[in-house]
């Protein structure tokens, strides 16, 4: 396969920038994990709040780079012509680097308490979670989004000719800029400030990124499996419709305790409980589309990450979001590590993995090495996948202990009481972080040098016969996929009950944590293990196609994978 | 899963009805939002809250400028390294906060909080003039002093000025006054002792709660040793190192009889009179490079022989 339009080449630089930012973000994550264990580490040099601001902002920036790369790659294909004004995309690339470097340094001003107040606005940095960037960087980012939206919308054909993927990406790039505007003014009231902060954070993730994600996943399935654009379009339409219909009022789950009235608890609990619907839908669709043909995987790492992205979207964003979406469970999970487990799986899993999938899809094509060695990419996938699942486990169980000690027992000395109780899980965090970091290093190395390394000897043929007893490699049926899905939700229900059980007088008044601990101890490991096994099973069934007898050797683009 | 047989006609009306439904939901959302911020809700607002001359509005800017949310949560949002700050004013009160914030690396002692109570702003805000009444009113301060007083925290010292500290207290007063619909949930698990036991078990408890208020015996015969005890009791060491390093205020190592540059450009020799004056009236002579007003005046708190004992202790500290 080769590219059809020259301007698709512009995507490669964004993927490479994405990998650089990803590696730096992971390094900051490791620093934060170590500081969770010993908060005095690097104190005075790199305080936790600055390291965390870098970690969050770099995370957002590399995910956005992945989006830009993927959109620049697919937009000419969707438009059936070259991008208009490619110089703007080239300019955007350097602008992104400039903004990242500028914001990286201005964040350190928080250690001196310098926000750069002028005309009532903080121009250098503003100390709001996820929106730490000051007004200068914020306005430049807005310009960047406008450039992207302009190029994409001008490149696309007339609206009358749009299919659902056009609609998804068109709405996505437009809304990316519109929603960002809500973070560009200073609000004096705390409740109103938080109200608008979630406009950006929630509507970005739930409204805009999700829409771009659904559209891109759909289109990559078309590219990889030659799936029917109409049937993918059907999924994209319902995905977007359900995301927006549930997510618009679903934002109310952020308005339970920030000083806004009680009625939000009703609306938030009701609508955001519907938010996993589109994710289940998307999950189901990747199963169907991946099974529309029986050809072997042409680009294994790209599909691994696409699958990881969809599954973690369901598990991390969908199920782990669902468990804490009700006012009666959220009252306990709010402001604890429980939410961080959800956030890492949802953000890195859903959006990060999509960017890496796009990079793995596009890079071999752009570098003209379709027969690249996929082994490092597969290894990298398993490392980051296991790493992020392990981190989510540490966050979730550590968070459950935190809820008990901090909220039920009301002991608010982190150094003396809370950290002490969470100790084991605080240590697990950097351990699994190391697994993820290793994977990130492997991925970055593999993608940087892809096509520049010596080709290895032909790998040994993968084992393709189903295991006699378990049938591990036999094709995955819809029935079996449904059973896996049910198992995930079963453990999700157990986790929900665990959070609910904190309301029982036996726990809350008598102070006995056994029930929530047991339910969390069953629910989280169960959910994460089922997730791991399911992805393993799904991939095994697809890999077994590599030498399935029905496939003519001429169609086998890749050597069999080991 | 496909949509009809090849033509997209079945999708268009759905797009329209989906948009219509979305519009209805947006209207609901907007209506709820408007109701949330009507004055009739009676929610506290920062322009109505102040602490002495300091406005909560200014405090919010300080809170953002130092990115406090990067370690702490506020109304539950932020990072989870340190405690939630929404109700810290209500629990610990303004004097404890005033003693803590300039030297966040150390936990204030009772005497350090008492020193803050001399501030007329504190007096006006708390309505109490004795430490006992204060600790009665803010049991969170009493518990913090008893369990941690004089120890080190896990928080870094921040270069907060006197005004910034007052503004932050005003802001935390505002957040404490907010109606957050019952969050954080009320603790119903009994007394502090019982809860500590539940958290750590009966055996480990002894290590968690240090022997409260180790009996301080004034050693009049050895002024330097007494002084060393006094600087601990009064929490001076939260800001002043025994070597020449800067924690918050100047380090004490080798200070005695050295030449000190002052903020007004003058120079002064650190003799007994200068040291005693700097304890009693710290703002009379400000050392170059340090902001004024951060250290409370110990004029009425310390007796003459106590000041002498501290000065005698300072004599013994060598530059390292």
TrEMBL record, chain A:
Residues 1-448 form the Cytochrome oxidase subunit I profile domain. GO terms for cellular component: membrane. InterPro entries: Cyt_c_oxase-like_su1_dom, Cyt_c_oxase-like_su1_sf, Cyt_C_Oxase_1. GO terms for molecular function: cytochrome-c oxidase activity; heme binding. PANTHER family: CYTOCHROME C OXIDASE SUBUNIT 1, NITRIC OXIDE REDUCTASE SUBUNIT B. It holds the Pfam family COX1. Keywords: Electron transport, Membrane, Respiratory chain, Transmembrane, Transmembrane helix, Transport. The chain crosses the membrane at residues 12-35, 55-79, 91-110, 130-153, 165-187, 207-225, 232-252, 264-290, 302-328, 340-361, 381-407, 427-448, 483-502, 514-536. Gene3D superfamilies: Cytochrome c oxidase-like, subunit I domain. This is Nitric-oxide reductase. PROSITE patterns: COX1 (PS50855). It comes from Rhodanobacter lindaniclasticus. One of its GO terms (biological process) is respiratory electron transport chain. SUPFAM superfamilies: Cytochrome c oxidase subunit I-like (SSF81442).
UniProtKB/TrEMBL annotation, chain B:
Keywords: Electron transport, Heme, Iron, Membrane, Metal-binding, Transmembrane, Transmembrane helix, Transport. Pfam families: Cytochrom_C. The keyword Hydrolase does not apply. SUPFAM superfamilies: Cytochrome c. The chain crosses the membrane at residues 18-38. Gene3D superfamilies: Cytochrome c-like domain. Residues 54-176, 222-318 form the Cytochrome c domain. GO terms for molecular function: electron transfer activity; heme binding; metal ion binding. Signal peptide: none annotated. PANTHER family: CYTOCHROME C-553-LIKE (PTHR37823). This is Cytochrome C. It comes from Rhodanobacter lindaniclasticus.
């Amino acid at each position: 396969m080769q590219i059809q339009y020259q301007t698709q080449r512009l995507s490669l630089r964004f993927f490479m920038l994405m990998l650089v930012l990803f590696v730096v973000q992971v390094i900051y994550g490791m620093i934060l994990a170590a500081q969770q264990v010993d908060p005095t580490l690097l104190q005075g040099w790199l305080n936790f709040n600055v390291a965390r601001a870098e970690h969050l902002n770099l995370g957002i920036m590399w995910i956005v780079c992945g989006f830009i790369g993927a959109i620049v790659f697919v937009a000419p294909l969707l438009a059936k012509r070259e991008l208009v004004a490619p110089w703007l995309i080239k300019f955007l690339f350097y602008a992104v680097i400039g903004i990242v470097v500028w914001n990286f340094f201005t964040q350190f001003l928080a250690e001196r308490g310098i926000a750069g107040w002028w005309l009532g606005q903080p121009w250098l940095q503003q100390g709001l979670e996820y929106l730490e960037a000051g007004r200068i960087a914020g306005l430049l980012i807005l310009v960047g989004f406008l450039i992207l939206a302009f190029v994409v919308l001008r490149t696309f054909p007339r609206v009358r000719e749009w299919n659902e993927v056009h609609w998804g990406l068109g709405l996505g790039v437009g809304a990316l800029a519109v929603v960002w505007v809500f973070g560009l003014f200073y609000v004096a009231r705390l409740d109103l400030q938080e109200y608008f902060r979630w406009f950006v954070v929630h509507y970005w993730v739930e409204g805009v990124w999700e829409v771009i994600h659904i559209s891109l996943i759909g289109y990559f399935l078309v590219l990889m499996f030659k799936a029917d654009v109409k049937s993918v379009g059907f999924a994209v339409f319902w995905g977007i419709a359900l995301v927006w219909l549930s997510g618009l009022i679903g934002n109310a789950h952020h308005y339970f305790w920030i000083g806004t009235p009680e009625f939000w608890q009703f609306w938030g609990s009701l609508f955001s409980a519907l938010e996993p619907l589109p994710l289940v839908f998307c999950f189901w669709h990747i199963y169907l589309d991946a099974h529309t043909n029986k050809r072997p995987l042409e680009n294994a790492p790209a599909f691994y990450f696409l699958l990881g992205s969809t599954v973690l979207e369901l598990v991390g964003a969908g199920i782990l979001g669902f468990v804490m979406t009700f006012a009666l469970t959220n009252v306990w999970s709010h402001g604890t590590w429980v939410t961080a487990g959800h956030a890492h799986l949802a953000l890195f899993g859903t959006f990060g993995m999509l960017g890496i999938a796009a990079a793995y899809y596009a890079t071999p094509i752009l570098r003209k090495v379709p027969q690249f060695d996929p082994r490092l990419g597969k290894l990298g996938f398993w490392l980051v996948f296991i790493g992020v699942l392990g981190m989510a486990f540490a966050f979730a169980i550590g968070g459950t202990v935190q809820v008990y000690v901090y909220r039920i027992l009301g002991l608010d000395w982190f150094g003396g009481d809370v950290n002490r109780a969470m100790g084991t899980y605080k240590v697990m965090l950097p351990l699994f972080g190391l697994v993820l970091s290793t994977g990130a290093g492997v991925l970055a190395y593999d993608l940087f040098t892809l096509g520049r390394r010596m080709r290895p000897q032909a790998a040994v043929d993968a084992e393709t016969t189903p295991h006699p007893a378990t049938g591990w490699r036999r094709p995955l049926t819809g029935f079996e996929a449904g059973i896996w899905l049910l198992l995930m939700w079963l453990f999700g229900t157990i986790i929900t009950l665990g959070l609910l059980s904190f309301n029982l007088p036996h726990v809350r008044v008598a102070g006995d944590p056994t029930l929530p601990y047991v339910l969390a101890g069953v629910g989280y490991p169960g959910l994460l293990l089922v997730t791991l096994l399911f992805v393993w099973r799904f991939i095994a069934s697809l890999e077994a196609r590599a030498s399935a007898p029905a496939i003519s050797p001429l169609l086998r683009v890749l050597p069999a994978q080991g | 899963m496909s949509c009809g047989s090849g033509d997209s006609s079945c999708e268009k009306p759905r797009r329209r009805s989906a948009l219509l439904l979305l519009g209805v939901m947006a209207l609901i959302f907007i209506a709820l939002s408007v109701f949330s911020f009507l004055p009739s809700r009676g929610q506290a607002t920062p322009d109505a809250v102040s602490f002495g001359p300091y406005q909560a509005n200014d405090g919010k800017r300080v809170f953002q400028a130092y990115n406090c949310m990067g370690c702490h949560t506020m109304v539950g949002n932020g990072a989870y390294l340190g405690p939630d700050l929404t109700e810290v004013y209500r629990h610990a009160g303004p004097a404890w906060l005033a003693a803590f914030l300039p030297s966040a690396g150390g936990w204030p002692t009772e005497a350090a909080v008492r020193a803050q109570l001399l501030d007329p702003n504190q007096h006006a805000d708390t309505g109490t003039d004795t430490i006992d009444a204060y600790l009665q009113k803010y049991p969170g301060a009493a518990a913090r002093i008893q369990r941690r007083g004089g120890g080190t925290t896990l928080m870094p010292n921040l270069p907060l000025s006197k005004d910034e500290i007052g503004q932050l207290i005003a802001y935390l007063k505002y957040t404490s006054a907010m109606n957050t619909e019952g969050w954080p949930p009320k603790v119903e698990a009994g007394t502090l002792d019982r809860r500590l036991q539940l958290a750590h078990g009966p055996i480990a408890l002894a290590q968690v709660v240090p022997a409260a208020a180790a009996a301080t015996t004034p050693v009049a015969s050895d002024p330097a040793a007494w002084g060393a005890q006094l600087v601990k009791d009064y929490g001076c060491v939260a800001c002043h190192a025994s070597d020449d390093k800067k924690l918050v205020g100047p380090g004490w190592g080798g200070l005695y009889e050295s030449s000190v540059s002052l903020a007004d450009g003058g120079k002064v020799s650190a003799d007994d009179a200068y040291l005693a004056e700097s304890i009693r009236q710290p703002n009379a002579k400000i050392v170059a490079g340090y902001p004024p007003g951060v250290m409370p005046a110990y004029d009425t708190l310390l007796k003459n022989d106590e000041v002498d004992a501290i000065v005698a202790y300072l004599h013994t500290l060598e530059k390292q």
